[in-house]
Structure formats: structure tokens, C-alpha cells
Amino acid sequence: MTADTPTSPPATDSGYVHDNTPATLSDTSISVLATLPTSVKPILLTIDFPHVMNKIAELWVRPIQLDRYFEELAIDARGGRRGFPIAIANEISNLREHYQTHVRPLKKSNWDFSI
User: Fold this and answer.
1) pTM
2) 49-103: per-residue pLDDT in tens?
3) Which residues fall within 8 angstroms of residue 18, CB to CB, at 6 or more apart?
4) Which of 6, 19, 46, 54 has the most CB atoms in a 10 Å sphere around its CB?
5) Nearest to 41 by CA among 93, 99, 104, 95
């Protein structure tokens, strides 16, 4: 783990952030973060939305499900949600691009090579 990898984001007095979601990163999240280049580490995401990072880490070895989760994070299918602050949305986007190009590149089918 590097010095810039947060292990325990600040919590409210109750020890939780955002609707009773635990304010700590899972061991799986910490492991995933340790493998990421500094340029794509989602530092603000881990501080403000540790439950989202925990879900990403949980799905890290399941590319289809993680791609679907990245889509859910980008598109408000339920309606009425505020969305992420732009800096955090950019971190998620950078992490998604890194995942899809370096960690689990999408497999090409014959259709991808047709005219």
C-alpha cells in the first residue's frame, strides 16, 4: 500500500457516511487500490464514497458485472439523483478506462473487424 492510498476515510460522528453506509474501505478495496497506478487511483471517491469503491473492488474480477456497474454509476436509471461531483465522476471515468484497457480489455469479436 502506498502513502496516497486512503485506508479509512473520515466518518460522521456515527462512524458512517451517506445513509448508514460504513465509512471504511474493505480489504479488497485496499488490495485493488494498491495495484493501481497513481494516475488512476480514485482518491476522492474512496474518501467521499467508500461504499462505491468497495463495490467496484468486489466486482474487479467479474468484468461483465463491473462494466454494468460502471454504467449504473454513469447513468441515472432511477431518476432524481444528483450525481457525483465532477472530480469524482472524472476519477470513476479514468478508473473505468484503465480497467477496460489495461486490466480486463474487452474481447474483440469478428464483428468488430467487419466493415
Assistant:
1) 0.73
2) 999 999 999 999 999 999 999 999 988 776 777 789 999 999 999 999 999 999 9
3) 49, 51
4) 46
5) 95
Nearest CA-CA partner of 23 in 57, 51, 56: 51
DSSP 33-80: HHHS-GGG--HHHHHH-HHHHHHHHHHTT-HHHHHHHHHHHHS-SSS-
Q: DSSP secondary-structure letter at 108?
A: P
Sequence-distant (≥ 6) Cβ neighbours of residue 73 within 8 angstroms = 52, 84, 92
Alpha carbon distance 82, 22 (integer Å): 21
The helix (run of H) or strand (run of E) holding residue 2 is: none
If we measure between CA atoms, which residue out of 30, 77, 35 comes closest to residue 50? Answer: 30
In the numeric block, the cell 431518476 is attached to 79
Length of the chain (residues):
115
CA distance 9 to 22: 10
